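Q: Convert this sequence to structure tokens.
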Amino acid sequence: MSGKTETAPADKELMPDAKDKKQKKAPARVEGVKLGRHPLSSDRPGHPYALFKGQAPAIGKKMVFTMPNGVTYEGTVEAAVEADGEVLVEFKDGLKPVPAKK
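A:
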């Protein structure tokens, strides 16, 4: 028995390279979003939600979308429910407008 040990080759699925990691961190861009607001009570505004057709984004992932008026918003997904091809997404800390690039 020799004192030499061999390491198993790294599985690409278990250890993605830096390029793969960068792609996974990019926010999900969604088209055709309609915004709404859940009422918390009659005297306070509620939290925003987005409704669109497509696939539900992962919880904790950033989602980016541009409204028809040209304003782009970004938010962290707190909850996402998919039914009949439509997705309702609620945001953890609300939505933030993304400044336009000059």
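The radius of gyration is 20 Å.
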